[in-house]
Amino acid sequence: MYVLRCRESGFECDFIIEGETMEEFLKNGADHAMQQHGMNANDIYLNDIPANLLCHSFKEENR
User: Considering only CA atoms, which of 43, 63, 35 is closest in space to residue 55?
Assistant: First the structure.
């Protein structure tokens, strides 16, 4: 399981992004960023703003 607290990506947000696979985790994080923070795909994936941490700061947790 991959887990990241949105706050760890630089947002004032308590949402916890999770995914069983890295692909699921990244999709869930991108969906959250777009729906809740008004971001678009370029913001997330082009390393322009703090959300790029989503792709670099997640950790794997055993559950």
Answer: 43
Domain span at residue 16? 2-60
What average pLDDT does the chain have? 76
> How many domains is the chain partitioned into structurally?
1
Look at 3-7, 26-30, 52-56 and tell me which has the smallest mean pLDDT: 52-56
Residue 40 CB partners (closer than 8 Å, separation 6+): 34
Contacts of 30 (CB under 8 A, 6+ apart): 41, 44, 45, 54
- Residue 48, both tokens: 């322009």
**pTM summary value:** 0.68
